[in-house]
Design goal:
The structure holds 2 protein chains of 2 kinds. Chain A is built from 9 helices and 24 strands. Chain A is an alpha+beta fold. Chain A has 3 domains: about 60 residues, no CATH class; about 210 residues, Oxidoreductase, molybdopterin-binding domain (Sulfite Oxidase, Chain A, domain 2, Alpha-Beta Complex); about 120 residues, Immunoglobulin-like (Sandwich), CATH 2.60.40.650. Chain B is mainly α. Among the domains of chain B are: about 120 residues, Cytochrome Bc1 Complex, Chain D, domain 2; about 70 residues, Cytochrome c-like domain (Cytochrome Bc1 Complex, Chain D, domain 2, Orthogonal Bundle), CATH 1.10.760.10. Chain B has 15 helices and 6 strands. In chain B, strands 2-3 form a two-stranded antiparallel sheet. The longest helix of chain B has 21 residues. Chain B is elongated. Classes of the chains: A alpha+beta, B mainly alpha. Chains A and B meet through strand 3, strand 4, helix 7, strand 7 and strand 8 of A and strand 1, helix 2, helix 6, helix 8 and strand 4 of B. Strand 4 of chain A pairs antiparallel with strand 1 of chain B.
């Protein structure tokens, strides 16, 4: 026991708060026993001496804390509940220098600290093209019409009251920005999974299949080939969506997210849900659906969200988010507290259907083991996987590799670059690698 | 039945069928859109210029609007890199002939301007019309959009300086776009009908083919890229972006040596004492909970000569009736010194720090 004090419990503050100068030197030199030393000095600070503490027991057990010896807070003290004050580190954040205006920007979800598959609505990633507004739902309208007469028999206007009267479905789906992991096409650029993969979230959405609304307007399915979806924000962002996805009943006009209304940042009061397709097509603040027979080549499918190839050509109308996975813990920017047992945990998803299998490697991809699937496996939804790992204190490279129900296997960086070069920006679904060194530091690396 | 009444019945049946059709299955939900409403919102323009409203604007008119409304973000010539990626630059007269931007092939441009990428003038018209200027979208007139577009196309040497862009000649301008042949759709990432069935793409065929090898998949691990040192600290202190419990901690990337926490002030110590002793369960600092708020207590004792001693005695012995029917239990467990600290703190305004 004496040489493994850090396994005694999870009751101490983070060791980085207790580093003295010698410890800092040790960190810089890459020695991992600095953590042990840090713990001993922390223990000494808390309990007088380490020996006294060992003899008497944990003061957190022996001296009852105030929450055990007092009356707690009343009900409804916080009418809309908030996370614990100790969870403040997990927030959505911007990546400095990525964008130039905060209204035309991105915030990333803190994947490094999330469990399961559902993203808390307040931590859902954001991407706005011209800022967000909190729209008065009594003044919001959804218009459905055709490019010409004949695509729909009766163009219609729906209020939010109208949409909430229609029969809904509730489904869990992931949403991933097409540019997620875009900074990493050429080389490692960001330190943590929040910034490398955090334009990814997953919610239960409640809404009306768009098919029902189009049928309510008397759509001519034979003539209709595409729809255009448009938002009510300043950008009035538009995207072309294939009619086949609407006919499959997958595309929803949603108002609910995780049991409550959509958050304003996520499109309150109405947003389009386009499962498996990149987030830009999930038009927020949805105000208009046009039914037509040709794609529109809108700004976000003709200037942005086009994928540059090595031959100088751009791929246009790339929409599907292909099968991808990432280990969220341990991940870049984290420190393992000691040798011994760890649960490696991560997320896998595919825009083409269900996740079939996830394999994990701890040696940089030489050998792989199948991971456990932790919760439900749903189509076009995040799937949480985990696997046992006993860290022996030696360098390791952690990777996950997902396979979807079509049999497609997530590619490595070498394979992806051979197909698309390094300047595509969008649709980087390469295998992510996290390097663990002897000090316990985990960092972002790329393995070919 | 007379022939006349038969006709009436037929008409009535037709009318009811018609109304059922108009209202669809969901009776009473939604209403017909009026032509003026559709006209107000349906402003999109397709690459075949379906949706484009007639109008015109000259390069000179566009320049005037540009100087007034666009230069602050995009620079005088659409070249500015200050607020946005440049709009204009990186294309040549030769690109206008071929429809391929050569610098995209060579990869020698410092960044991709909008004009290097976009293949369709319709896209530019639609976007300027619906989204620009950034702070006042949809404030431009139809002719102003034509003029601005003429000015931009002239900056890219696609149209001459005396050009007047109209709905009649906009397709000719599109036929001169330097990257008009720069798009391809033969990929597997379109989720609708493939090109062979009148849609887009190859029907979902991926461009990589990894296999799920399980053991001895390679002989060496090639680390191609590491996190640059500057990037580790560019995203703030990672220690503060991770949970403070669990199997891992965030790395301290603040670049600062950790400092010992400052000695707590008397107020902070008293706040902690009040919290730890359970006082705060019944008393708010500035509000009544079960018992009175500390602000009310301080107000009541204000100016009394022996306020501290009196309040200390009350705390120790408890009481009932002064503030209402619910009694305050005696606080015998508190040390006299702690009671003195608490009382002093309450009477001084119960500040947190």
């Amino acid at each position: 026991m004496a040489d493994q004090p850090t396994q005694r419990g999870r009751v101490r503050p983070a060791p980085e708060h207790f580093l003295n100068e010698a410890d800092i030197t040790a960190v810089k030199e890459g020695r991992r026993d600095f953590l042990r030393n840090a713990f001993i000095s922390a223990s000494a600070a808390l309990a007088g001496t380490g020996a006294a503490r060992a003899a008497e027991g944990d003061p957190n057990i022996l001296t009852l804390p105030p929450w055990t010896t007092s009356l707690g807070q009343p009900v409804a003290a916080r009418p809309y509940g908030l996370p614990s004050q100790y969870e403040k580190g997990l927030q959505r954040r911007e990546s400095p220098g990525l964008t130039r205006l905060p209204q035309v920007s991105v915030s990333f979800a803190p994947l490094q600290g999330l469990f399961g598959i559902i993203t808390p609505s307040g931590l859902h990633f954001e991407r706005h093209h011209q800022g967000w507004s909190d729209i008065d739902p009594s003044k919001h309208r959804l218009m459905v019409h055709g490019t010409d007469d004949g695509f729909v028999k009766q163009p219609k206007v729906y209020t939010v009251d109208d949409i909430l009267r229609l029969p809904p479905v509730s489904r869990m789906h992931f949403i991933e920005c097409g540019a997620n992991t875009g900074m990493e096409w050429g080389n490692v650029a960001v330190p943590t999974v929040q910034y490398s993969h955090g334009m990814l979230s997953c919610s239960e959405f409640t809404g009306v299949p768009l098919r029902l609304i189009l049928e309510d307007c008397g759509v001519d399915w034979k003539k209709a080939k595409y729809i255009l979806a448009e938002g009510a924000d300043g950008s009035s962002m538009t995207r072309t969506i294939p009619i086949e996805l609407v006919q499959s009943d997958e595309v929803l006009v949603a108002y609910g997210q995780n049991g409550e209304m959509l958050r304003p940042e996520n499109g309150y009061p109405l947003r389009l849900i386009v499962p498996g397709v990149q987030g830009v097509s999930w038009v927020k603040w949805l105000r208009r659906i046009e039914v037509g027979d040709k794609p529109w080549a809108t700004k976000d499918e003709a200037i942005h969200y086009i994928d540059l190839l090595p031959d100088g050509q751009h791929r246009q109308y790339t929409s599907t988010q292909e099968c991808k996975s990432v280990i969220t813990t341990p991940s870049g920017g984290q420190i393992l507290l000691d040798k011994g047992f760890y649960n490696i945990s991560g997320l896998a998803w595919s825009g083409r259907g269900k996740i079939k299998r996830v394999d994990v490697s701890t040696d940089g991809g030489i050998n792989w083991r199948p991971a456990r699937i932790e919760g439900p496996t749903l189509s076009k939804c995040l799937t949480r996987f985990n696997i046992d790992w006993v860290w022996d204190g030696k360098p390791a490279i952690l990777q996950s590799r997902a396979m979807d129900e079509t049999g497609y296997v997530q590619p490595g960086y070498g394979q992806l670059r051979a197909a698309r070069g390094t300047k595509s920006i969008y649709h980087n679904n390469a295998i992510q690698s996290w390097k663990v060194v002897e000090s316990g530091d985990v960092s972002n690396v790329q393995v070919l | 039945m007379s022939r006349f009444s038969k006709t009436l019945i037929t008409l009535a049946v037709l009318a009811s069928a018609g109304s059922a059709l108009a209202e669809g299955k969901y009776t009473g939900v939604g209403r017909g859109a009026l032509p003026a409403e559709i006209h107000a919102w349906d402003i999109d323009v397709r690459p075949d210029f379906k949706g484009l409203r007639p109008g015109s604007g000259s390069v000179a008119q566009g320049e005037e609007t540009w100087e007034a409304k666009c230069t602050s973000c995009h620079g005088s010539f659409g070249e500015s890199n200050e607020v946005h990626t440049p709009l204009i630059g990186g294309t040549t007269k030769d690109d206008i002939k071929t429809g391929h931007v050569l610098s995209l092939v060579k990869g020698d441009a410092p960044q991709r301007t909008a004009i290097m990428k976009v293949a369709t003038v319709s896209t530019l018209f639609d976007y300027i019309n619906r989204s620009m200027p950034l702070t006042a979208p949809k404030s431009l007139s139809n002719n102003e959009v034509y003029g601005l577009l003429a000015y931009l196309l002239n900056q890219a040497e696609i149209v001459p300086a005396d050009f007047v862009l109209t709905d009649k000649n906009i397709a000719e301008a599109q036929a001169r776009m330097p990257n008009r042949n720069g798009m391809r759709t033969d990929h597997g990432m379109w989720p609708g009908a493939p090109a062979t069935k009148g849609g887009i793409g190859n029907g979902g065929k991926p461009d990589t083919k990894n296999t799920a090898c399980m053991s001895n998949c390679k002989t060496e691990v090639k680390v191609a890229s590491l996190l640059p040192v500057y990037a580790e600290t560019a995203h703030g202190n990672l220690a503060e972006q991770n949970r403070s419990v669990g199997p891992v901690r965030g790395k301290d990337t603040s670049g600062k040596a950790p400092v010992a926490p400052a000695a707590p002030s008397d107020n902070a110590a008293a706040t902690k004492l009040a919290t730890d002793s359970g006082c705060m369960a019944c008393h708010g600092v500035a509000n009544k909970i079960v018992g009175p708020g500390y602000n009310e207590v301080a107000a009541k004792y204000k100016g009394l000569a022996d306020a501290e001693a009196k309040l200390a005695a009350k705390v120790k012995a408890g009481g009932q009736g002064v503030w209402g029917a619910i009694p305050m239990p005696p606080q015998n467990q508190l040390k006299d010194g702690d009671i003195r600290s608490l009382v002093k703190w309450i009477l001084s305004g119960a500040k947190a720090q």
